[in-house]
What we know:
The chain is an all-alpha fold. The chain is built from eleven helices and no strands. Helix 9 (150-162) packs antiparallel against helix 10. The longest helix has 30 residues, at 14-43.
Amino acid sequence: MKSPIPRNFNGIPSSIIDKTLIENNENYNRLVQNRQYSILTQLDNSIDLNRFKIDNEYRRLTILGLFMCDNPSFEYGEQLAIKYNISIDECHHSYFEYLLTNSNLSLNEIRKKIKPFLNSERMKKNRQIKLDLVKRLHSNVFPLIDGKDYERLKLFYDIKKSLGDLTHAQKHIQAIQQLTNILNHGNSIQIVSRNENQSFCFGQSNRVRPGS
Length: 212
């Protein structure tokens, strides 16, 4: 049996080797991309892949939308977010927004899903992430909460308290607890919203009005 003839790569022009490596790399990248697109359509078959490839805003909204369900594929969604330079924090905040506005899960289940994010080292150590989430909750979540849904309001302020708004959030939590004890009807959102402008950014003291 003849022994295999060793390849002498030194005798092959470098241009041919470079071209082969580039082609192999392109083929690999194409396979990875096709795999990603396949998973994407499995998660949501309504996604327009052609538009996803060329429309940056559509792609961004599509990736954020992957997190707006009860059980998102975090690993896959985060891989796409990183690939297309979309903030991981914005993806997670989209998840928060969905859970608090559109999810059919019980509030206890929602608390369990949110807790790991609130307790993460990334959240604890980065004040800007907390501020961004507080702003998003105020703009996209708070206006949609039914004023009679005291438990959801309490969850909203519990989250704010976890994000560092200790004083203002606690005052609202106490007010809601009192309301649930003494009222059988009424709209608490009209009461608690009076102080919203004061507690919009946690850690910010009340401003003194001129002449006061």
